[in-house]
Structure formats: C-alpha cells, structure tokens
Design a protein that fits this description.
CATH architecture of the largest domain: 3-Layer(aba) Sandwich
Shape: globular
Oligomer: single chain
Structural class: alpha/beta
Largest sheet: 7 strands, antiparallel
Radius of gyration: 28 Å
Strand order of the largest sheet: 7-13-10-11-12-9-8
Length: 625
C-alpha cells in the first residue's frame, strides 16, 4: 500500500482535532485503552467523549482546548496508509503549520460553516499554495449547527473559490461535514442528501498522489560514504526525485565529475531500478572524490548550481530577521554558512499584496535573496520540493529561524544589469547620434514611438495577440514593427541556447534592436517569454520610462500545457528539452506590469480591444484620425 501524508489546518475551534479523532475512531484505528483514556479525561471535564483529545496531546492543549504543537498520527485502512499532521490554527503558531505541511501531499483546510472564510482560512490556503501542496480539501465543518443547510454550504464554497483563483492550487475539493456527529467523515451523511460527492475518508483513500511524484529529474544528495572494506565504496542516501538504473551516465555536482552507475544496493539485494523516496547505496564505475553534501544527477538533466538564491521564506523566530547576519542553510544534505542579502518584500496574507519591509517578525512570509558561501545544487521549489526547500539555522542558538522555498537563482537588479552591459561595450566606438531625430519621425508618423513588451509562458498567446494588434495598427496607418521570439532565433540569435546566460544575451540583443526601431519612430511590439524580471527591467532602461510598456499575457501553466501549440511542453515533460520555462526553468511573474491580459479567460479580439483602449488612453495614437 502507498502512503498519503496530509495536514489539517484552520482557524481556532474549527474542529481540526475533532475531525482527526473522528477519522481515527470511525475507521477503527485506535485501541480500546486509548478510547478509555479519552473517555476518562472527558468525564473529568464534565463532557461527552471528546475525540479531539486523541490528538491534543499536550497538557496545555487539553487545558485550553486548542492545538499548539504539530501532532502526528498514523493510521491505515485496507486501501492506504496515512500520516496526519494536525497543525495549530492560531496565527501565533503559523510556523508550526508550515512545519507540518512541508512534507504533505494533501491539505485539509477546515472552515466553520457558521463563520465562513476567515483570515486564517485564507492564510492556510496561501501557505498550502506556497508549499506547492498539490491537493486541497476544503472541509466545511459544523454543518449540524446550521441545520445542514445547502445554501450556507454553497455560500462558503463560492467565497473560497473566489479567493482560491489567486492561488497556485490545481485540485480543490469541497466537502460538507460534521466532525462531531460524523456526517460525511467516514460514513455518508443521512442529513445532506443534496450532496453527491465523496466522504472525506473515501477521497483520502482514492486521491491519486503517485502522479505528483517527480520521476523525471534524478537527484541523489549524498548522505554518507560507505567503505566497509577496500573492495567496496558506495554512496548512501535517499533519492529525492527521479528514477535511476545501472549503466546510466551521471554527473557529480558541484565538482562536475562524470561516471556511470555500477550498482544500486539496497538492504537485501541489488536493484534494477530505484525511485523517489528509496534509501539506497550507489556505486560508480569510476573512482571519484565524493563526500556528504554532493549531489549525483543524470548527466543530461542537471539542477541549477549557484550561491545566490531567490526564495520565499516563513520567518519562525521571535528574534527579527537580521540582514547581513551569518546563518546556516540546511539544503538537502548540505549545511553551509549563508546570509540574507536582501529583503524584496513581505506578503500581507489578508490581501496577498506585497509590502515593502526592512525586517521580518515572527510568522512573517515574504521574498528574500540569500547568499551561501558555497555553491548549492537546487531546483525551483515548484518543480522539486525536496531540492527546492531549505531551512535557516541560527548558529548561536542552533534554533531553526526560517523555512524557505527556492524560486530560482537570484539575479542582479536592473541597475546592476545596466551597468554591466555598459561596461561591456566595444572599445574605440563613438556614438555619433541619429541622422534624423525621433521627434521628427513621430511628427511625420502622427503617433508616438513606444515599445510594447509582451511577456508570459510559451503558449499563453503573446504572439497571437501581438500579431492581431499589429494588423489593426497597420490597418489604421500606423508604423509598426513586430519582433517575435521565433523570428530572432532563426537569425539574429540563432547561435544562442536557453541557459539563463544565453536567455539574457538573447533579450539584450532584441532590446537593442527594439531601441533602434523605437528611435525610427515605430510602435514596436516584442513577444518574448523573457522569464527574468531583471532582463525586462534592462530593456525598460534603454528608452524613456513613459515609452516602455510591459504587457503581461497571464495564462496559468496548466492552460498553456493543454494548448501546447508547438508540442514543446510534451517534449519538455519527457526530458527532451532542457531549460524549458515552466517545466525545468523558472518564470518570474512581472512585479508591476503596465497592463495584464488574462488570455485564458478572454478572447483574442477582446484582448486586442483592451490593448487598443490602453494605447488610446496613453495618447500614443489619436483617438480619431
């Protein structure tokens, strides 16, 4: 049987512990002496049998009737084994919720039907999204206290669905239940005939989680070097992700030494294949110096290697974050000194808005840049939770002060990029100025010269929308130039690949060409994935601020995968394309786009009309001509 790890979360007194107790009791997963102990404790308190006491193990929790620490429980049914992390609901213990949810494959978020969606409901939903938990169950509890009213249930569902549109969660299931009475927990409720969905236990038993395991990107952080005798030298550890077989070519990072897998040794015998979560010993065909903290990967599928990390963190210490202070970063089996070099922003959990911040207090969540003293081998967290997660440790107290999720490699700010490009200009070249000034060309063209930079995932509709907009502009007599990613990759940038460095150079070249057409007085439409904010900011710096417009074609990655007009996503998912944005390479959503086009909810014609109104509002063209 496989194992499902899930976590529960919700506001104080929403019934999390009662729900877990009901699951354990109704599924016959507790012993008689446990039940008798809970029964006696309940009698002392002068109440009926309180199943919440099965999980509220701390004396302080029983006295206050709340959950403080993360309580882990284990149970099994004939179909599946379960590990439950019952996490606190109070805002003060948000860090405990992060801890309990960090390894979960499913999150149960409880909502009291009487109160609806509260701040903590949103907070826990956002944390589940941040931690990339693939499956979420919104359990609308205490339906018995609202008379099992379908209208109340539907109102909560509508409210949470509206909030969840801003979250990166693909699978959300809503279940009305009463943990106290047992309705729809293990057995189908007789009081809610209007509900045709599964019970909570049935959903937990049948939700597909194996498909969520990353079996493509082989990552093996070395934990120990095993040398029982002179004839055997193996490397022990747990496979974080991917499948591996004897004979496959591998690379050891960060040394970049190459070899092949000779044997995969388990406790009992050699294996022909090993996959995610398995603890094994690997032997190689060549003698290579490998130690704890190194990572063995498939040679044709490598993670990022770097010292500067762009990451989301949850601050877990009562001592505020100290910029410049030396911490220890625990990443896979690596423990190295690091410091927080920059706070990019703090998130307001109530609104999900980004707020400027100089420091983080307990339970604050936001985005930072971290610099490690040694190179780390990592993947973006959304692609690989094992190699994309880390914790920060205070070396003075040995306390864990933060949990983090890596977004990618930290990139220089726009100013740094601009200065770098200026330093790299060819020597002995003198700029002589334009033969005909831009203002003269604009006067003849009867419109302003501007650059519209369309960015978004491959398949989001950038080129389709830009082409349609250009046809309308051209039809109205305006001078345009369309620079498309495929155009320049067939000529100007045909010598470049798709590594971060080559992507930067590709965008730099395009930006310089766009500036030339801008100076010629054209309305320049550029359609490029351009996944890094720093690259887009660099292009903005080439022209006057009011003449550059970042157009974010916003379509979620799953929609783009379904469209897949060129079959690129399918190839990338099969490992045939490396460094593909959204699959094996990161995409940084625009921080402050000038205009956002939700291309997965509106048509091309509606998108063009929205852009046309925006162009007119910016007085780039005359409303009537």
């Amino acid at each position: 049987m496989d194992v499902l790890r899930f976590t529960t979360a919700g506001s104080v007194d929403d019934g999390k512990s009662t729900l877990i107790g009901r699951l354990l009791f109704d599924s016959k997963s507790i012993f008689e002496d446990q039940y008798e102990s809970v029964k006696r404790s309940s009698q002392v308190r002068g109440e009926e049998v309180n199943l919440a006491l099965l999980t509220d193990g701390l004396r302080a929790e029983r006295e206050q009737g709340i959950t403080i620490d993360v309580a882990y429980r284990y149970f099994a049914t004939p179909k599946r084994k379960f590990i439950i992390a019952d996490t606190p609901g109070h805002e003060q213990y948000t860090r405990n919720m992060v801890t309990g949810a960090s390894t979960a494959e499913l999150a149960i978020i409880l909502i009291d039907a009487r109160n609806g969606v509260l701040t903590q409901s949103r907070r826990h939903g956002f944390i589940a999204s941040l931690l990339q938990i693939p499956h979420v169950v919104v359990a609308i509890n205490k339906m018995d206290l609202v008379g099992y009213d379908e209208v109340v249930y539907e109102a909560v569902v509508d409210e949470y669905r509206a909030f969840a549109q801003s979250l990166a969660v693909d699978d959300i299931v809503f279940i009305p239940l009463s943990a106290l009475c047992g309705d729809n927990v293990v057995e189908k409720s007789e009081h809610m005939s209007w509900y045709n969905g599964p019970t909570l236990l049935h959903h937990l038993e049948t939700v597909k989680v194996r498909a969520d395991h990353n079996v493509v990107d082989f990552r093996f952080p070395v934990q120990h070097v095993i040398r029982p005798n002179q004839d055997f030298r193996g490397f022990a550890g747990q496979i974080s992700s991917g499948l591996i077989r004897p004979g496959e070519a591998v690379t050891v990072l960060p040394s970049d030494k190459k070899s092949r897998i000779k044997r995969i040794v388990s406790f009992e015998t050699d294996l022909n294949e090993a996959g995610p979560g398995e603890g094994v010993i690997l032997t190689l065909e060549d003698e290579i110096d490998i130690s704890r903290g190194d990572m063995i990967v498939r040679s044709q599928n490598r993670p990022l290697v770097g010292q500067r990390l762009d990451a989301d963190i949850c601050w877990m210490s009562e001592e505020p974050l100290n910029i410049g202070k030396s911490y220890l970063i625990q990443h896979t089996t690596n423990l190295v000194p690091a410091y927080l070099s920059k706070i990019l922003y703090r998130l307001d959990i109530n609104t999900l808005h980004r707020v400027p911040a100089d420091q983080y207090e307990l339970n604050d969540i936001g985005r930072v840049e971290i610099t490690a003293t040694q190179p780390l081998c990592f993947d973006p967290y959304r692609l690989n939770r094992h190699t994309g997660g880390f914790i920060l440790i205070d070396p003075d107290t040995n306390n864990t002060v933060a949990a983090g999720m890596i977004r990618g490699e930290a990139r220089p700010c726009a100013a740094e990029e601009t200065l770098k490009h200026r330093r790299e200009k060819s020597p002995n070249v003198v700029w002589e100025g334009l033969n005909i000034e831009r203002v003269e060309r604009e006067a003849r063209n009867q419109h302003k010269a501007v650059i519209f930079w369309f960015t978004g995932y491959s398949g989001s509709g950038k080129s389709t929308i830009a082409r349609a907009l250009e046809k309308r502009l051209f039809g109205e007599g305006y001078q345009t130039m369309l620079l498309d990613g495929d155009y320049v990759r067939h000529g100007l940038c045909q010598d470049l690949g798709f590594t971060p460095t080559e992507r930067k150079e590709n965008i730099r070249r395009v930006g310089e060409v766009a500036r030339l057409f801008f100076e010629q007085g054209s309305i320049v439409l550029c359609t490029f994935v351009s996944p890094y904010q720093a690259d887009r900011d660099f292009i903005r710096s080439l022209v006057p601020q009011e003449r550059f417009f970042e157009v974010f074609i916003d379509s979620d990655i799953e929609t783009c995968k379904k469209r897949d007009p060129k079959g690129l996503y399918q190839k990338a998912l099969q490992g045939q394309i490396n460094d593909f944005t959204g699959i094996s390479a990161p995409y940084e959503r625009p921080l402050k786009p000038d205009i956002t086009i939700p291309s997965d909810t509106i048509t091309v014609a509606e998108s063009v009309e929205t852009l046309w109104r925006f162009i007119a509002a910016q007085e780039i063209i005359k409303a009537t001509r």
